[in-house]
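INFO  loader      accepted 1 record
INFO  loader      residues=142
INFO  predictor   begin
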Amino acid sequence: MTLIDITDNNICFYKDFVSCYQKCLSKYMSRIYPDKMNVIKWCYINVQGKNIGSIWLEQLDTSTVKLGVFIAYEQYRHSGYGTLAIKKLLEYAKHNGFKTVVLNVRRDNIYAYKIYQKLGFVKTKQFTKSNGVTVISMAVSL
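INFO  predictor   done
INFO  writer      dumping C-alpha cells
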C-alpha cells in the first residue's frame, strides 16, 4: 500500500470514486472531497497500482487537523489498507508539528469506530446532523 499525492495532473482518476458513491454517498459519509481551502495533504490510497480510496488532512488551526478517509471499493474494505493509510497520515501530521487530529465517524459504522479507538482516538462528542445521521467526533493527541 502506498499513498500517492493527488495533484491537478492525476485528479482525473477521482471520477471513479464519484461514480461509486454518487447514489449512496449519504449512506457512508457526507463527502468524498476535502475542503480545498484547508487541505494540507490529500492522497490516493494505492494498492498494487490501483487507487482504492482517498485520505486527507484539513488544517483547522495551528495545532489541529481533521482526517478524512474512505475506501471506495468494497472488496478492499476491512483489509487493513485504511488503517495503514491513517497511520501514515498521523505520522505526517506529527512530523509537521500538529498536536491533535480529529475526525467524525457515523455512529452506525462500528467497524471504523473500533479501528479509530485502536489507533488512539477517543470520543469527544456525539451529534445528529441535519440529514438525521448521528455522528461521533473523535480526537487523538500526537
